[in-house]
Write a structure and sequence with these properties.
Elements lengths: L1 E6 L2 E6 L2 E7 L2 E6 L5 H9 L1 E6 L5 H8 L8 H4 L4 E2 L8 E2 L4 E9 L3 H4 L1 E11 L21 E3 L5 E3 L22
Antiparallel strand pairs: 1-2, 1-5, 3-4, 4-9, 5-8, 6-7, 8-9, 10-11
């Protein structure tokens, strides 16, 4: 997943490793966003974001986004992605993603202690293609940090994590550093 944010005239994108569906009505999603990430304060202050679902052809871009801080660069330009205006929030949609979910902060009770945001999905967007389940000529969406991708023959490919330690996703309880 890629999370786009907007605050004080600036956009950012971060790779999201930890999220969960919490409720269907209202549609609630929980996301753990490290306090060291550049996106953390942008999302906390704006109280909104867009959760974007990339396709497998963006796997390398998703990893590179997770290994790069948005504090000094525009990640949309840097990674050749298109920011599209959302309907109900200021954070942009990522045009190259299969689906985008406009979110507003629903509950911030766990942000200070656990960096856990609870968002309400206020509008959903999905591309007309690819339709699911995918056929051999269609692209599938990423799951679990982009480490697993479904292959056209129905099998799956397990990719080795290429997030740098101290950047983006943390793969251990003692990992440290800042990114996003």
């Amino acid at each position: 997943m890629l999370v786009s944010s907007h605050w004080q005239g600036k956009h950012n994108i971060m790779t999201l490793g930890w999220h969960t569906v919490l409720e269907f009505s209202p549609s609630l999603v929980g996301c753990m966003i490290s306090g060291g990430n550049h996106s953390f304060e942008m999302i906390r202050k704006s109280r909104e974001c867009v959760i974007n679902l990339p396709t497998t052809n963006l796997t390398d871009t998703v990893v590179r986004i997770g290994n790069t801080t948005g504090a000094n660069i525009d990640k949309f330009s840097e990674f050749g992605l298109t920011a599209e205006q959302a309907h109900l929030v200021e954070a942009p949609l990522i045009a190259e993603c299969h689906a985008s979910f406009e979110c507003r902060l629903f509950d911030d009770a766990h942000v200070d202690k656990y960096n856990f945001f609870i968002f309400e999905v206020v509008k959903a967007h999905a591309a007309a293609r690819p339709k699911h389940p995918p056929s051999a000529d269609q692209v599938d969406t990423l799951s679990r940090w982009g480490l697993a991708a479904r292959l056209p023959d129905g099998g799956s490919e397990l990719r080795q994590p290429s997030f740098r330690v101290g950047q983006g996703a943390r793969f251990g309880s003692d990992a440290q550093g800042k990114a996003e």
